[in-house]
Amino acid sequence: SSIRRQGEHYDRTVNKSVRHQKERDELLTRRRQRKEYSSAEERDMSNLADEARSWQQTQYMVSDLLANGEASLNSLVQQRQSLRSVTRFLGQISDSLGISNATMKIIERRDVTDAYFVLAGCVMTCTTI
Predict the structure, then answer these.
(1) Are 17 and 23 in contact (CB under 8 A)?
(2) How confident is the model at residue 32 (pLDDT cuts 50, 70, 90)?
(3) pLDDT tens, 69-124?
(4) What is the pLDDT of residue 59?
(5) Nearest to 65, CA basis, from 99, 16, 18
(6) 96 vs 51, which has greater pLDDT?
(7) Which of the four pLDDT bands, split at 50, 70 and 90, describes residue 33?
(8) 5 with 70: CB under 8 angstroms?
(9) Using an 8 Å Cβ cutoff, are 57 and 23 in contact?
């Protein structure tokens, strides 16, 4: 089911530009055409048919938007699960190495200090140039 949804999502994204061009051409064609109707009923029926087509296109676009959102959320869930497993694994490694929380804080502070040194070096280089 997930693979099928991903396949449908891929098809939609690949065909999106083609569909946009087709819709644009259709709209421009409708705009250029000045239809002459023999009766008011014929004009009303044509307007209702145009409205039905517009609703169908809107429904398709909304379903496409929902599918994109679902695919994004599924991707985020998978990334979260991966990060959880990595965090657990790193915790096991630090436990087996005997690294304490104090040591981890020192390492984190060192990373921040190194970032400041890099930033200062970039500023000095930019001002020198």
Answers:
(1) no
(2) low
(3) 899 998 999 999 998 898 888 888 877 777 777 777 787 788 888 888 888 988 88
(4) 93
(5) 16
(6) 51
(7) low
(8) yes
(9) yes
Contact 8, 66 (CB under 8 A): no
Q: What is the CA radius of gyration of the chain?
A: 29
Alpha carbons 103 and 106: distance in angstroms, whole number: 5
Taking the mean position of all CA atoms in its chain, how far away is CA 122? 33
Question: How many other C-beta atoms can be found within 10 angstroms of the C-beta atom of residue 116?
Answer: 9
Q: What are phi and psi of 34, to 5 degrees?
A: -110, 100
Exposure of 118 by Cβ count < 10 A (0-12 exposed, 13-18 middle, 19+ buried)?
exposed
Residue 6 neighbours by CB distance under 10 Å: 14
Which is more confidently placed, 80 or 38? Answer: 80
Report how far residue 30's alpha carbon sits from residue 24's, in angstroms, rounded to the nearest whole number: 10
Q: Could you please report the per-residue DSSP string of 24-61?
A: HHHHHHHHH-----SSHHHHHHHHHHHHHHHHHHHHHH
70 token code pair: 């679902």
**H or E element that contains 120:** helix 101-128
